[in-house]
Structure formats: structure tokens, C-alpha cells
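Example record

The entry below shows one chain as it appears in the dataset: sequence first, then C-alpha cells.
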Amino acid sequence: MKIKVGVIFGGETVEHEVSIISALQAIENINREKYDIIPIYIAKDRTWYTGHMLFDIEVYKDFKDLKKYATPCTLVPKNGKFYLQKTKGIFRKNITDVDIMFPIVHGNNVEDGTLQGYLRTVGIPFVGSNVLGSALGQDKVVMKQVFSSMHLPIVDYVWFYDTEYMESYEEIHKKISALGYPVIVKPATLGSSVGITFVKNEQGLGSAIDTAMQYDQKIIVEKAVSNLVEVNCSVLGNYDHQDTSAIEEVLTTDEFLTYQDKYIGGGKGKASKGMASASRMIPARIDQNMEKEVKDLAMAAFRALNLSGVCRVDFLIDKETKKIYINEPNTIPGSLAFYLWEPVGKSYRELLDNLLTLAIKDYKDKSKKIYSFNTNILSGYVTGTKGLKGVKGKLKR
């Protein structure tokens, strides 16, 4: 019997379309001899939909008009199984059962632990990092604080909330100037290079911060690395074991890999292939010692944030000093970083199978742990009155 995999994508996030591309790429490569695929699309209004029409990328170009053909649904646990149910009509009819969820989502409200927390509450097994790892991987400030506590190399930075900036912008500008220009201004919890600005001097700082604040309440400003080389390495595994992929060198004409580089680079009339179509060189042009250091740091970052599944860890290297800095992990990377695994002999189909197998194993291992007690302490709760209003209760001991 085939395993029924619910592939979840979309969501209320600025990386909505990127998620669609990544998910449909994965769906095309999942082994249909082992798995039945159930597409689950979260529209920008947070409504969940399912239906065979969702396999076609053309649908999403004008989904507002076509969504009447898809089926609104919700996830429901019942008698030890998990079902997608229709949300319209008097009777909540089951559409299909689902064995495991595969979130292929990017950005706030989905990748950041929000969706993972919901799936964990429902109780269904799912691919990828749990709530804590997902949240840490999304918040660039807390992430750096964790890395710093583990003595992992990161660039100098300043962070602040939008309200703090409105009240004390002069003081914040001084702290940023102390970093030394150029700097990079980022929304703290976004990905795909959305809202990021490279700032060469103080004259451009205010507008860059204004741009970042359009997307996030928390802003981070990082010291830019001189003589920059960007490299990325993917990690596959869990807390117990990790494997590393080939290392890519990012090629861009800008100061950092932009949203344009990542997802639009093909130009008008050409379908985007997500991160798989970005300009890169594999393997990266680094020596063996640096290659080993990058891979060791990638696994250390993966363990520090308690990640699981497949992750892409991005690095900044100063070509002159040979200093390596961890930039950030992507807990659900664009295109699931399959292009970094193919050079080491792991096909996309095999990578996806590894991820599903790992998720099932982790779910079984977690099921052996104690999460609740059979005893009910409320059975020994004495109120002395009938009802709950004004009750002063105590526990029998």
C-alpha cells in the first residue's frame, strides 16, 4: 500500500510564489510507485485547498478566478488517522486520508514554526524541522544569538524594533556607524532576499531601514564582508546524524544574491525554476581545508538550531583574510537544495525519499517518549460547592 503524502505549500507570506515553484518541483520528482501525492495549497487568505487541478502551475497565475474548482479543506484527526475534510456544506465529508505531511513552504506564517506547531498539535507526522528549529531558523537575530553562544563565527550586527527606531533613530544610527560601512539592512524574519538593501554610506541608511520596516517589526543591520565570496552547503539529517552536500559558489553581479537572481533571472517569457536556476558554480572555488571548515560549520549550525530534514546553510567568506562567517540557514530551502545533492550522487527522487523516511523514523522515535500522563489530577480536585463560580479548590494529597 502506498504512503499518502500531503504536500503543503503557499501561505500568507511574501515568498508565496516561491513556495509554489519549490512544491511543484518536488511533486514532479516524488516516487509515485511508493507515494500517493495529495496537493494542499494555502491561499494568501489562509484558506486551505486540495484537488488535482493544483498540480498545474498555470492555475496559480489567476487562482482567484479558478479557486471555485478546488476544494476548501481542513485537517482533522479521527480514530488514529488524519483526514482532509471539506469545509463547505452542512456535512463535513472526508476527502481523503493522509499519512504524512510534507511542508514545502517559505517565509513568515508557514516556515517559521507556525505551520509546524499546528501539525504537531494535530499529531500528524511531517517532514522537516520541528517548531523550535523552524522558529530559530527564521529569526536572524535570535539565530545569531544562538550561534554566538556556541562560539560559531558570525558578522558583527545591530538589531532593533521599528518602534525603537522611531523613538531613538539617532542613537541607532550611531551604533550602525560604529560597525563601519558598508552594511546590509534586512528584515529579521524574511527570506529570499526580500526587503534587503546594501548600504554604502549613512546617506542611504534611512531609506534602507524604511524599506525593511515595510516587511517586519524587527530589523537587523550587518557589517558587510569585504572581498566577498558567498558559498552554500546543504545538510541532510537530524540531531543524531548529518550528511553534507557539494558546496556551491554563488555568482551574482550585485552585493548579495537578490530575489531577481534567485527567482526571476530568466527574464520575461521564461518560466522560473526557483533556486535551481540561480547562477552558481559547483564545486565552489575553495581549497580542501576551507571546504572541510564550511562543511563542519554547516553541521554545527544544523545541530545548534536543532534542525531536521534538509537545510541549506549560507556562508560569507572574506577572500583576503580567509575568514568564514555563517550567514543563515534555510530550514526549507528553495527547490529543497536538490541541485547541491545531485553532484554527490543523490538524485532529487532519492533526496525526497530520504526526507520522508527520516520523518517517519523521527515520528516513531518521538512516539516512544512520554508527552502526557494517563492519570487525571482533576479527579482529586475538591471544590466544596457545585459549579465553578467563586470556587476555592484544593488538591487531595
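Notes for this example: The first helix runs from residue 16 to 29. The chain has three domains: 3-126, 156-223, 226-361.
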